[in-house]
Amino acid sequence: MALAAGLSLANAEGPAAGAPVLKGKAVTESNLIDALTPDETVVTRSLRVQRDTPGQQAARKPSASLLITFETNSAALTPQAKKQLDVVASALNNNKLAEYSFNVEGHADPRGEHTANQSLSQQRAESVRQYLMTAHAIDAKRLKAVGKGDSELLNANNPAAPENRRVTIVTDVPAQ
């Protein structure tokens, strides 16, 4: 039995709640480049003081989401997952994204023991990172694997939902 795992190229500092899931023909190099490329910011010499507002969200990071599959309780990539990661690799190797690093964040749903979910999520992140490095020569310095466990659900209304069992890739945009 296959376990669905969404590969989220997330647009939020935390969970990618509300981020669209790219499926089928929507998983293209150009869609991924558009989703992962940070907005250009204009640097000026002015100083702006801004008061923190309660409930204000942290700065969003570029993202997109894909549906990737793993075998149940496994971090092994399926042939279909590898095909989608091949598209991700093409985007990461594109000149528009060449200067950026990415966090590969593994996630698990809350079923099972918390420590087991933490370990599984780390293994999934490592599996994706390793595939991108070995199959597509993406520099290891550009990819950091992080296990998030079951702490960041995309679908809190259905904790067992496939989108909660995913790997997320987030563009690492330096703080300004």
Can you lay out the helices and strands and say which pair or pack?
Elements (H helix, E strand, L loop, with lengths): L1 E8 L11 E2 L6 H8 L27 E8 L7 H14 L8 E6 L7 H23 L6 E5 L19 E6 L4
Parallel strand pairs: 1-6, 2-3, 4-5
Antiparallel strand pairs: 1-3, 4-6
The strands making up the biggest β-sheet line up spatially as: 2-3-1-6-4-5
Ranges where pLDDT stays below 50 over 5 or more residues in a row are 1-5, 10-18, 49-53
- The gross shape turns out to be globular
N- and C-termini, Cα separation? 45 Å
Helix content: 25-40%
Strand content: 15-25%
| Structure summary, number of beta strands | 6
Mean pLDDT: 78
Largest sheet: 6 strands, mixed
Rg value: 16 Å
Judged by helices, strands and strand pairing, the structural class is alpha/beta
Order of helices and strands: EEHEHEHEE
Number of helices: 3
Tag the structure with descriptive keywords:
176 residues, alpha/beta, 6-stranded mixed beta sheet, 26% helix, disordered N terminus
Characterise the protein shown here.
Helices cover 26% and strands 20% of the residues. With 176 residues, it is an alpha/beta fold. β4, α3 (114-136) and β5 (143-147) form a beta-alpha-beta unit. The protein has a six-stranded mixed β-sheet.
